[in-house]
């Protein structure tokens, strides 16, 4: 569909609504509110800026909860000026409904993830908006419990932490995360209204990088964040060892890959790459805690390093995934090495909560060949073999073969749009139909016009994963009520929820985040940003 076609649909629907209302003796105020609320989000999404601004300015004159009825003379004075605005709006491009390719585009957010732990919702919303205008991605936690959960699940690049939180103090949060944050080189910045000298000294001695007092000067704040990310990049470029596990890091992985490929082109000496991924590692963290999870990672690292040759290279590839380079080794010989390590690791006893448990890993191996000696291709082949091992039942190793090249990771994502605005549903579902997120084999899209129809449908399967795009304001049952029922009824591990909200709807934002929303997007919806957020969230619980 073209941009103009979307605009024509908005104009036609608006005129049709006003025509229908003109034939009624009275119109309920809540219907006028919903009309303007939906128009604001839809018009902005399709590029009708004048119409969006008019709806935004007119909306405060009406209330969703009001029982008042308006005559045509009353509501006409407010709404009929809309009609000529469709002709005045000269916006032609529609950046929000562009199709993203598999790797995204320049509008997508880069991998600078910030975790903001603070219960001051107005400040949180302001900082989130300001930071994301600078192309940072911000996850929000309004409580210490939520902040700790996000920290351990996502490993952010930087943490902004308030001291006064509703459940436990920020200092207690700091005590729990500072050791891991130091090992992972994650800067922590305190932002607090409690800034006595004693508090600042205590925080600095625990290991925070900076301490900012409220109110925040946004220009200085953004400059500081930019400075800290530049410093973090310098750290990353200066080290090649992952401090938690003692394995080499991703930077060294890239260097070794380049060296081995150059050597192969010059001498034709083969090498193999094995990717190793711990099975059900998230369940270990959830069951026994993240400190025990760290012990498992360290134990695997010690075993591998003690089982390979001096010329082999062991790297932490990311999270619970590792890589082993085996120079002068074909795939079948590499399989013997990895199988031996696999058996020893599966027999290792781990102790927690007065019980013994065991952990396994799956692996995939690729061998450099004359035809395929490009780094990305070698990794892709090992990756396909790894996921073949997982699909076959885990705790095994698969050698890459040509028949795997036509397969993709068996990962399925279900996206559900719940919004009473038919045009928004059409736009979003159309874009998701053409969306190809990295490493996700299949995306299934469905939509519902209201929360009741959604909740009463047979939408959920225990073995599948879901992202729900949920409108905050809907008739009969609003988005926050739908969210509350989702969280009470279904396991959170399988469902991520992104709330779609109006710009000034701060009360809905805080309520949604408290009820367990994973993110929110302000209308009008900018599709590249929304798809980027969805891909980040999907990778959080699919892999």
From TrEMBL:
Q: Modified residue Phosphohistidine is at which positions?
A: 37
Q: Which GO terms describe its cellular component?
A: plasma membrane
Which molecular-function annotations from GO does this UniProt entry contain? diguanylate cyclase activity
InterPro entries, A to Z = CheY-like_superfamily, Diguanylate_Cyclase, GGDEF_dom, HPT_dom_sf, Nucleotide_cyclase, Rev_trsase/Diguanyl_cyclase, Sig_transdc_His_kin_Hpt_dom, Sig_transdc_resp-reg_receiver
Where does the record place the modification 4-aspartylphosphate?
A: 162, 471
The cross-references to Pfam families, in alphabetical order and at most eight, read: GGDEF, Response_reg
Q: Which residues form the HPt domain?
A: 1-100
Boundaries of each Response regulatory domain copy? 113-229, 414-538
What are the GGDEF domain coordinates in residue numbering? 269-402
Biological processes per GO annotation: cell adhesion involved in single-species biofilm formation; negative regulation of bacterial-type flagellum-dependent cell motility; phosphorelay signal transduction system
- Is-annotated flag, keyword Phosphoprotein? yes
* UniProt keyword terms in alphabetical order: Phosphoprotein
Keyword Phosphoprotein appears in the UniProt entry: yes
- Coiled-coil residues: none
Name the record gives this protein: Diguanylate cyclase
Native organism is Paenibacillus odorifer
